[in-house]
Amino acid sequence: MSFNTFGHLFRVTTFGESHGPAIGCVVDGCPPRIPLSERDIQPYLDRRRPGQSRFTTQRQEPDAVKILSGVFLDEAAGMQVTTGTPIALIIDNVDQRAKDYSDIKDKYRPGHADYTYDVKYGLRDYRGGGRQSARETAMRVAAGAIARKVVPGLAVRGALVQMGPHRIDRTRWDWAEVDRNAFFCPDADKAKFFAEYLDGVRKRGSSIGAVIEVVADGVPAGLGSPIYGKLDGDLAAALMGINAVKGVEIGAGFGAAELSGEQNGDEIRMGNDGKPVFLSNNAGGILGGISTGQPVVARFAVKPTSSILIPRRTVDRYGHETEISTTGRHDPCVGIRAVPIGEAMVACVIADHYLRQRGQVGETPSWPFSPPRAP
Ligand SMILES: Cc1cc2nc3c(=O)[nH]c(=O)nc-3n(C[C@H](O)[C@H](O)[C@H](O)COP(=O)(O)O)c2cc1C
Q1: Which residues is 66 bridged to in the sheet?
Q2: In 10 A of CB 47, how many CB atoms?
């Protein structure tokens, strides 16, 4: 049984391989009459695109997206909008070099999915890793661009907050910095450090892991489907489903285990606008699997790239012990390009839950409630 679709009402199905002619996706369930053109999607793909700095793979893919279906000119509005039918998107693969991968045709890269694909399916597309390649994640980013338009006022931003053992200084966090350096890093000083550090890693023929934080602002209170479709559970699954992700935290995450109850529970006061104000956000904007209206905060850990030049012991598909050193074009820190992918997955999950909330509850109840009248 295969699973290439995620989401319930906002459903995304992706297809395609790293070295096939194209990759694509179908987004089904997007509401009608939302303005949508390639120009709304392309900027997000450009942020994830390979070959933009010496810190990412040199594969040159323009990643130019085409919308094949699901949009039409709304004459009254004078713009192209979604029709409510499936939105099919496609990106041509233009820079395939299958010969780069002849060394891994029969050998398994330690840390990669070569062995598991082989043992499960009995064959695998070794050209760039086929379907196991993160090339597929371009389509998640494209779907995420549509998801962002589904939820009014939603803003999803991501940042790289750790590379190897080196964390950013959170007091220096500046969102404007994220688009000024090659690492999506909100701490300008640390970004300079990362450049030197990653050059060293790359020149050694090695790779390194990273931690990414995604913050979603403008998430209305009430999203999430307890018990088995909790918002945090779905976010964790979506982020864990990104290639190379080995850990996900929401809010204080694993750090919550070190806190006492009075340190962890986010105290509540009344704001001037009649809404509750939480005095901290250890919950990461989610309680009981339901959004509180605070920013939703998720972090995920990305392992180091498995395809490295340093020789590693392994076996081949015929059961012989051997060694492998992977040449070809690989990111020395895949965590960098995972930033826009993490944002997209969070946007898709929130859009899905926004539509689910509308479907089950309709108008979110107006809060605060009136006290019961005396009998
Ligand atoms: C943006 C991105 C780019 C990646 N590029 C590479 C790469 O160039 N070489 C590599 O070995 N792994 C790369 N990976 C990781 C592999 O796709 C991933 O490790 C592999 O599919 C096995 O899956 P798993 O790590 O989730 O178990 C990349 C991951 C991401 C998110």
Answers
A1: 90
A2: 19
Q: Which two tokens stand for residue 283?
A: 């919950």
> What's the whole-number average pLDDT of the chain?
95
Ligand 1 contact, 140 CB (< 6 A): no
Assess whether the C-beta atom of 339 lies below 6 angstroms from ligand 1: no
pLDDT given for residue 327 in this prediction: 84
Tokens of 180: 């000024």
Q: Strand ranges (DSSP E) for 188-275?
A: 210-217, 245-250, 268-270
- Using CA atoms, how far apart are residues 275 and 263, in angstroms rounded to an integer? 23
308-329: per-residue pLDDT in tens? 999 999 999 999 999 999 987 7
276: Cβ contacts below 8 Å, ≥ 6 apart: 268, 269, 270, 293
- Collapse the DSSP code of 113 into the 3-class scheme (helix H, G, I; strand E, B; otherwise coil) and give the result: coil
* Mean pLDDT of all residues in 338-360: 98
Ligand 1 closest atom vs CA 245: 26
Q: Provide the 10 A C-beta neighbour count for residue 23.
A: 25
16: region left, alpha or beta (phi > 0 left; psi from -120 to 50 alpha): left
Say what the pLDDT of residue 183 is.
97
Give the span between the Cα atoms of 23 and 26, in whole angstroms: 11
Tell me which of 65-69, 92-96, 189-193, 369-373 is least confident: 92-96
Note the pLDDT of residue 1: 65
Judge whether 112 and 38 are in contact, CB under 8 Å: no
Specify the residue for token string 């001037």: 272
φ, ψ at 58 (rounded to 5°):
-90, 5
* pLDDT at residue 129 in the model: 82
Question: What's the pTM value of the predicted model, to 2 decimals?
Answer: 0.97
How many other CB atoms are found less than 10 A from the CB of residue 358? 14
Which three-class secondary structure state does DSSP give residue 94? coil
Structure token digits, residue 66: 């085409």
Residue 330 CB less than 6 A away from ligand 1: yes
Query: Distance from the CA of 1 to the center of ligand 1, in angstroms?
Result: 23
pLDDT of residue 95: 78
49, 55, 112: residue to mutate for ligand 1 pocket, most atoms within 8 A of CB: 112
